[in-house]
Amino acid sequence: xxxxxxxxxxxxxxxxxxxxxxxxxxxxxxxxxxxxxxxxxxxxxxxxxxxxxxxxxxxxxxxxxxxxxxxxxxxxxxxxxxxxxxxxxxxxxxxxxxxxxxxxxxxxxxxxxxxxxxxxxxxxxxxxxxxxxx
Length: 134
Description:
The chain is of the alpha+beta class. The chain contains three helices and four strands; from the N terminus they run E-H-E-E-H-H-E.
């Protein structure tokens, strides 16, 4: 699971954002399932920042966000986040020296077959209704 949040930082001195982002990464990094995190700033737009994290799976990421200390200290950072999708499943990955080959075991989606059509509260039963609106 890859999580990418872009942040619009309008302060002349971005040190406050950088401090908050570092604290958020430290808290998230202590949670089970965390793999890595980065903080970056756009080379062509110094007011645009990105925070990325990698997780073993979406459940680990969601559980990390529900931890008390993360809610108190890391979630306020989201006030500067651009409103767009942030969580992505990794379908292919290439490492150094791989010659362009995908890592083993990638290319397959873990999304449920009905993920694009089942509404909130409708997927809790043993079967999925076939009359759901698209």
